[in-house]
């Protein structure tokens, strides 16, 4: 009993720790009308010859659906949303195309799931720096964000 | 009365066996463990340019991961996880070798691999080889990879690949897999129980 208490304490502590570190490192949400883009971050790259990835959460607080139709950033010649699917332990990347953001819903781009693939990098993405990225929505129009660059092995916005 | 007592004792024993089994399966995790004791075999080139085989890594536990350096999502996440495991193993890390086997030899030259694996941890060994060597290596682990055409990807293709980490024993036997996203704590706990 003591052991399981101890164990649950450890688990509780380890769950709490990322929250503590996240509280000061996450970028402020950017809002335009009912569309809110939260916690953007990108993975540091090694040079420019290989793609990197960016992640964020899109929250449509409105009463009608919208669609993310394009992404532009000066750091990458090409930026598309890609999907990651796992079938019998095999990871497979696909192109998401336009991403539906249903009314009242959150769409989360995170490691192991959907991500913005940053290709043809114009400059290396260095940890600690940030860059500007514009999301283009069918109805909400353009939303421009500042995306902090985290470590190459980061798994979430607070690292 | 005696029969009832026997039945009760029998039930108690059964409960104990079930509980022990449950604890054991909990301890081992839900991933595949020691399916049939097979020994993967390969001849590949490490990121220093030396030809190596499975025998090179005998004597050490090996954590094997398949991927490619143009992979921006699950490969960096997993390599960072391996790096964390190696850091937290401290002294025991001498007994563990993380191996990153490229499934994309067309793009993953020795130089590309060096640049990539060293960005994560000095202990990670990058392995590449000819198409044939790679496919032999991957199938000897009973793992899977496939080149898939994709217009939106760099060079017009991407690689689908097994995303689990394979644990090999110092004698070179397959021990178990850790599925993608297994927290480093769980891998550490498992390794510390074995080393």
Task: Please provide a written account of the structure.
The complex is a heterodimer of chains A (159) and B (195). Chain A is an alpha+beta fold and 159 residues long. Helices cover 15% and strands 50% of the residues of chain A. Chain A has one helix and eleven strands. In chain A, β10 and β11 (141-150) form a beta hairpin. Chain A is globular and about 40 Å long. Chain B folds into two domains: 1-30; 32-194, 3-Layer(aba) Sandwich (Glutaredoxin). Chain B is built from five helices and nine strands. The longest helix of chain B has 27 residues, at 2-28. Chain A binds chain B through residues 14, 43, 46-47, 49-53, 78, 80, 82, 84, 86, 89-95, 111-112, 115, 117-120, 151-155, and chain B through 69-74, 76-77, 79-81, 83-84, 112, 115-116, 119-120, 144, 148, 150-154, 158, 160-164, 177, 179-181, 185.
Uncertain parts of chain B = 24-30
Task: Report the structural category of chain B.
Answer: alpha+beta
Counted up, domains of chain A total 1
Oligomeric category: heterodimer
The CATH class assignment of the largest domain in chain B is Alpha Beta
Rg of chain A, rounded, reads: 17 Å
The total beta strand count of chain A reads 11
- The fold-level CATH name of chain A is Immunoglobulin-like
**What is the correct CATH architecture of chain A?**
Sandwich
Instruction: Estimate the global geometry of chain A from the Cα principal axes.
Output: globular
Largest interface: A-B, 33 and 36 residues
Question: Radius of gyration of chain B, Cα only, in angstroms?
Answer: 20 Å
- CATH fold name of the largest domain in chain B: Glutaredoxin
Structural class of chain A: alpha+beta
Our count of helices of chain B gives 5
CATH homologous superfamily placement of chain A: PCu(A)C copper chaperone
* Average predicted local confidence, pLDDT of chain A: 88
Bin the strand percentage of chain A.
over 45%
| Strand runs of chain B, count | 9
**Secondary structure: helix percent of chain B:** 25-40%
- N- to C-terminal distance of chain B: 51 Å
